[in-house]
From TrEMBL, chain A:
Pfam families assigned to the protein according to its UniProt record, in alphabetical order: MOZART1
Cytoplasm among keywords: yes
GO CC list: centrosome; gamma-tubulin ring complex; interphase microtubule organizing center; spindle
Protein name, per record: Mitotic-spindle organizing protein 1
Family membership: Belongs to the MOZART1 family.
Keyword DNA repair: no
InterPro entries membership: MZT1
Compartments where located: Cytoplasm, Cytoskeleton, Microtubule organizing center
Superkingdom of source: Eukaryota
Gene Ontology BP term (one): microtubule nucleation by interphase microtubule organizing center
Keyword entries, A-Z: Cytoplasm, Cytoskeleton
UniProtKB/TrEMBL annotation, chain B:
Region named Disordered: 204-240
Lineage of the species this protein comes from: Eukaryota, Metazoa, Chordata, Craniata, Vertebrata
Domain of life the protein comes from: Eukaryota
Single biological process term from Gene Ontology: meiotic cell cycle
Organism annotation: Triplophysa rosa (Cave loach)
Name of the protein described by the UniProt record: Gamma-tubulin complex component 3
Length: 73, 741
């Protein structure tokens, strides 16, 4: 039981590594955790277009908030 | 990790929000709600679930950033991913990564349209005093990927300037967003500053106000002109945000082919392409589009002509070759169009990543279509001019159009002329060398009359169709051509001489091809003329030879002279002597066979018997029409039968002329003989009547009268014989024959 599970885990880890590498290549700005969440969401069948727009918006919002904070302070 | 897998999407989303924004769960409530809404509303993807396509796009993206090594690396990773088979929705992940991809060179990421800003706004909504309406297009949730990027690009360009100015106006020169003059990154600043973008609430048809508002902002807040200037032209280039230049270009590409576009339609009453007036377009774009739409109109005209005539069977070979030439030109034009189309496609594929303008602007179209426009104009004018013509007329029309100084136009017309005249030259060569005329559509300038029989072949069967003579063939040449063909036909049919044209013409027939035709026009005077002249000379010579050798034309001419023109004196004398007792009777009692017998006697008795039997058998007596009270002398005439080719030379009119002359001479001769007899009688009687002096006065009068008459007859005969060249010499005959031929 352990070995199939562990091989599964290995495979999963490898996949995540590959994906992280790709994301780094493409300079998406996603770190491991976010990427993992995204992968899970996609595997559950979420529309990637919508998801990507959400992520972009979140990023932008966070940037603007940061800028705002830096301005104010 | 296994435990996390079972989490619901909501939970995951929330954790994502936290992660990215870096805030706690409570703070991200707003964003989380938004995220849920977006995801919920956009459930189904609008693009193809094609993993391969997505990976290709990623690679292209990387290549565009000139990171070939990275592209190769990506391919490796992708391959690895495929072998691992852990993920079920690979394309989804890849697409996600692609859409989140950021070019490290760009200062900021491509941020989607700022409408979301309104929902995320934390700051108080500031009144938008300068430009509320510059998003005329409603910013719905992003649709397909390239469209969105185009939309983002278009409107972002429009807003960046404004928002930057807005920033200035609100915050003073404080924080200088780094990319004020460039990218849409300033939006991020602007939006957050300004808060509520009314764009989300702006009605759809905000374009007129949008167009109106557009010039307002520059006048509005006194921002530095520097950010204004580079942005303004770009805005003008875009026009109002409603119809981008790219859309216009696409439309125009359809119009170029004659298909109505979305905005530019053909209006039949005015017979022109009109841009839908309801469509919001700035004036310059409208004008440029109208200019470009002319190309579509020209294309339609030419297309209509070729379509209507290529199916018309009765149009003839020349017309069809004209249509083929036009079709060829149109094909070139279509090729250009497909190149332009491909250009647009390429941009579509790559997204509008690079550059502010798409590389296919209206100005570029203007430049690239200038040459085709000139060509199409020439062709359209040619089509107009050639309406309703066919055959040689058409060739003349095209030739007339080639008389222009413009070298390009001339080259084009020459090319078309070469193609168009190729059938005509074909006809010509066949006619000259074979004497055959296969002209079902009556295009050639030699016309054959099928109702004419062979005996009238030379004179009536073939004629010139003057309207069909092309303008590059003079009347003289046309006549020569007619003669050549006529001679060949004459030889074939009347003389039954079927020597192949190769024997007649030592020069071989040149291989005719369309190229031949075009070469012809470069050397119209020389080669063509020499060909026709050579053919003419050879054929005529051969014909004369045949006539003389086989049919003894000259001999017949001589015979005519001897018999009909009373050249053979002894025979005529004898004939008259023999006929005297016969012809004094009334005309009605004369029988032809009697007279023929007498004729033959006369022939046998004189030198005429040494003539060739061929000639003698043609000699005959002819009795003219009998009117009451006629004696034999009035109705008698000799006749000379002609048939075959000789009949063509001695036509019926000709023969009747001969007969009339014969009549006249015959009667003059008869008078002469009668007078001679009288003189003979008088001389004899004078001696006898010397003993009767009472009669001497009367006799003297008679003598004088008779002498006068004789004198008169003699003068007249002298005149006829010497002054009027009735008896012509053989040399004169030779000259005459060439004229006749």
């Amino acid at each position: 039981m352990a070995s199939p599970a562990s091989t599964n885990m290995n495979a999963v880890r490898e996949t995540m590594d590959v994906l992280l590498e790709m994301s780094r290549l493409l300079n998406t700005g996603l770190d491991m955790e976010s990427l993992a969440i995204c992968v899970r969401l996609c595997e559950q069948g979420i529309n990637p277009e919508a998801l990507s727009s959400v992520i972009k918006e979140l990023k932008r919002a966070s940037e603007s908030l940061k800028l705002q904070e830096s301005c104010i302070t | 990790m296994a435990a996390l897998d079972q989490k619901s999407p909501n939970v995951l989303l929330q954790s994502l929000c936290c992660k990215i924004t870096g805030k706690s769960e409570a703070d991200v409530a707003h964003q989380f709600q938004y995220a849920v809404r977006v995801i919920g509303s956009n459930y189904a993807p609008t693009i193809e679930r094609d993993e391969f396509l997505v990976s290709e796009k990623i690679k292209k993206e990387l290549l565009k950033q000139r990171r070939e090594a990275d592209a190769a690396l990506f391919s490796e990773l992708h391959r690895k991913l495929q072998t691992q088979g852990v993920l079920k929705h690979r394309w989804s992940i890849l697409y996600l990564l692609l859409s989140l991809c950021e070019d490290p060179k760009k200062p900021s990421s491509r941020v989607p349209v700022c409408c979301y800003g309104s929902l995320f706004a934390q700051a108080l909504p500031r009144d938008v005093h300068s430009t509320p309406f510059y998003y005329a297009r409603p910013q719905s949730l992003p649709l397909s990927y390239p469209e969105r990027s185009a939309a983002a690009h278009n409107s972002s360009m429009a807003t960046s300037g404004i928002s930057s100015m807005g920033v200035f106006s609100i915050n003073g020169p404080g924080p200088t967003p780094p990319s004020l003059l460039t990218g849409p990154g300033t939006q991020a600043v602007g939006e957050s500053m300004r808060g509520s973008r009314l764009a989300w609430t702006v009605p759809v048809s905000g374009s007129p106000s949008g167009a109106a508002a557009a010039p307002r902002p520059p006048g509005g807040p006194s921002a530095s002109p520097a950010p204004k200037a580079p942005n303004r032209p770009r805005r003008d280039g875009d026009g109002s945000a409603e119809i981008g230049e790219a859309a216009l270009v696409r439309d125009l590409l359809y119009v170029f082919q004659g298909i109505d576009g979305k905005f530019i339609k053909m209006s039949s009453p005015e017979n022109s392409y009109k841009i839908d007036p309801k469509v919001p377009l700035c004036k310059s774009l409208r004008d440029t589009s109208s200019r470009l739409a002319e190309l579509g109109w020209l294309h339609n005209k030419i297309r209509k002509y070729t379509d209507s005539h290529s199916l018309d069977r009765a149009f003839g070979l020349v017309g069809q070759s004209f249509c083929a030439a036009l079709h060829q030109e149109l094909k070139e034009y279509y090729r250009l169009l497909s190149v332009l189309h491909a250009q647009i496609q390429v941009e579509d594929d790559q997204g509008v990543n690079d550059g502010m303008e798409s590389s296919l602007t209206l100005r570029r179209l203007l430049v690239w279509t200038y040459d085709p426009k000139v060509r199409l104009k020439t062709l359209a004018a040619l089509v107009d001019y050639c309406q309703g013509r066919k055959g040689g007329e058409l060739a003349s029309a095209v030739h007339a159009y080639g008389k222009t100084g413009d070298p390009h136009m001339r080259a084009l017309i020459q090319h078309i002329l070469g193609l168009v005249s190729h059938p005509i030259l074909n006809f010509l060569y066949r006619w000259i060398y074979d004497g055959e005329l296969e002209d079902t559509y009556h295009e050639f300038f030699v016309a054959s009359d099928p109702t004419v029989k062979t005996d009238r072949l030379w004179h009536d069967k073939y004629s010139l169709r003057k309207s069909m003579i092309p303008s590059f063939i003079t009347m003289d040449k046309a006549r020569k051509v007619l003669l050549i063909g006529k001679s060949i036909n004459f030889l074939h049919q009347v003389c039954h001489d079927r020597t192949p044209p190769g024997k007649i013409m030592p020069s071989s027939k040149s291989s005719d091809s369309p190229k031949d035709a075009t070469e012809l026009f470069t050397d119209l005077e020389g080669a063509f003329q020499s060909k026709i002249d050579a053919a003419y000379f050879e054929t005529s010579k051969y014909l004369l030879d045949v006539l003389n050798k086989n049919y003894q034309l000259l001999e017949h001419l001589q015979a005519m002279r001897r018999y009909l023109l009373l050249g053979q004196g002894d025979f005529i004398r004898h004939l008259m002597d023999l006929l005297k007792p016969e012809l004094v009777r009334a005309a009605t009692t004369l029988y032809q066979h009697n007279l023929t017998g007498i004729l033959e006697t006369a022939v046998r008795a004189t030198n005429a018997q040494f003539d060739s039997p061929e000639i003698l058998k043609r000699l005959d007596v002819r009795l003219l029409e009998v009117s009451p009270g006629d004696t034999g002398w009035d109705v008698f005439s000799l006749d000379y039968h002609v048939d075959g080719p000789i009949a063509t030379v001695f036509t019926r009119e000709c023969m009747s002329h001969y007969l009339r002359v014969f009549n006249f001479l015959w009667r003059a001769k008869r008078m002469e003989y009668i007078l001679t007899d009288i003189w003979k009688g008088q001389m004899c009687n004078a001696k006898l009547l010397k003993s009767m002096p009472e009669l001497s006065g009367v006799l003297h009068q008679c003598h004088v009268l008779a002498s006068e008459m004789v004198h008169f007859i003699h003068q007249m005969q002298y005149y006829i014989t010497f002054e009027v060249r009735v008896s012509i010499s053989p040399e004169d005959i030779e000259c005459g024959i060439s004229c006749v031929a």
